[in-house]
Amino acid sequence: MNRSITPLRLAALAALALAATTARAQFFLVENLTGSFSPNTTLDGVALGGDTAFSIAATFNADPSANQITSVVGAGSYSVTALTLTLAGHGTYAGIPSAGLNVVLLDTNGAGHYAAGLADLSGGTGFFDVFGSTTPALDAHAPSATTFVGFLVPSDTFPYTIGLVGIPGGLVINDLGGDILTASITAVPEPAEYAAVAGLGLGVFALVRRGRQASAPVG
Question: Which of 44, 108, 135, 204 lies at a C-alpha separation of 20 to 30 Å from 194?
């Protein structure tokens, strides 16, 4: 029986798994937002007390079929699957995905400008950063990695609440601070699946090496 074919088959399976994982990972993106929250924004019910710088990384499924508002020209809304919030002077928190936590994107086909932000579509609350352009151009119905350029104005409807793990009162955004807002969309891999594929690849390597050692002539 020729045992050398088993590692070859495993290598082929590893390549197929990697290709499938890469294809799935392309649908997951991260919306990155920075700026500051107002003094009356609260964390677990306590006012921040001053303009407080923030950064948000919101992972979302960017598959066009996941767009919740396909009927709106130039607009896209995608459920957030994971969120990390960093507040200057307070720490870093994990967000709680919910129906009210969505990445919302606009392109020039509808509103005439570009925008990125977070919103509760059912409640009509949230905040957007409005920009003059994106590089490369953003298609809100099929988003991909891009950088928003030329901040114009914020477009907000407050209060907007983001649930946080271990923080019963969450973050209640009542207004934005004075810092210029920035926004970008970046790609994100799926670590668990890549780790599994990597493990399969190491297993293939070990089997191939073992097979070669077994077939080597004994001196």
Answer: 135
